[in-house]
Write a structure and sequence with these properties.
mainly alpha, MetI-like fold, 266 residues, 75% helix, 0% strand, globular
Length: 266
């Protein structure tokens, strides 16, 4: 038992160290140092954070990331819940084929659809717009699969009782399925928000101007504009990591409950 704890502790240190080192660099002046010891022993300062917030377009990059991630997350909750309910409750041959097709998309690497999706955005004239950053990700196969598996475990007797009282499918979703599915919806919200917050490849392809770039893409261009100021870059990366840390700390209990639901459900 002690050996397992020691191994887990060492693994935790390895995983935490990059974030710790990022924070150290963000509080140091990295433009003048000759060794790691000089860097560590130098004075701490928040000048890098001040410079990042005062730099051109940094707040705009942050706003774009918040807007895109929030809207995509909201659309995923709505559309994935509706599709998952239809697949879980309306049993027919077409639904089975549709669900298999949805699962098949999960095995396709995103790089395979990179060029076709880019051409589609060009044809729609959506390049360098919020449409290109939001609509392709408004519904995801992972979200459909996650919610469908959860909804199938909800006793159908609850819905039958509601139908006897005159409830339609939309009322059943809003008053029965949605409240019961809150734990798994939290997982979907966190997964979708963080995936889009950290997204780089497609926002990089679909944006041309500073006004539309998200934070990960903006930090890359910031690197080119400022030569290589690692202190400021690590300050920007630390700011970008704050939402992920906050989300985990706030919803840690819900994440654990949702993950254990399938194992504890009779």
């Amino acid at each position: 038992m002690k050996l397992k704890k020691s191994i887990l502790f060492l693994i935790s240190l390895v995983m935490i160290f990059p974030m710790f080192w990022m924070l150290i660099l963000s509080l140091k002046n990295t433009s003048n140092f000759n060794s790691i010891i000089d860097l560590i022993t130098s004075d701490y300062s928040i000048d890098n954070y001040i410079n990042m917030f005062s730099s051109n377009n940094f707040l705009l990059y942050t706003f774009n990331s918040i807007l895109v991630s929030s809207v995509v997350t909201l659309l995923n909750v709505i559309f994935c819940l509706l599709v998952a309910y239809a697949l879980a409750r309306f049993q027919n041959r077409f639904n089975k084929i549709l669900f298999i097709s949805t699962l098949s998309i999960l095995i396709i690497p995103p790089h395979v659809i990179m060029i076709p999706l880019y051409r589609l955005m060009v044809n729609f004239n959506w390049i360098d717009s919020y449409f290109a950053l939001i609509l392709p990700w408004a519904i995801t196969p992972f979200g459909i699969f996650l919610l469908k598996q959860f909804i199938e475990k909800i006793p159908i007797d609850l819905e039958d009782s509601a139908k006897l009282d005159g409830a339609n499918d939309f009322q059943i979703i809003m008053k029965i399925i949605l409240p019961i599915s809150k734990p798994i919806l939290v997982v979907l919200i966190i997964y979708t928000f963080l995936a889009n917050w950290n997204a780089f490849l497609f926002p990089f392809l679909f944006t041309n101007s500073d006004e539309m770039r998200t934070l990960p893409v903006g930090l890359t261009f910031f690197l080119g504009k400022q030569s290589i100021d690692w202190g400021q870059l690590m300050a920007g990366a630390s700011i970008a990591a704050i939402p992920m840390i906050i989300i985990y700390l706030v919803f840690k209990k819900q994440i654990i409950e949702a993950m254990l639901y399938g194992a504890l459900k009779e």
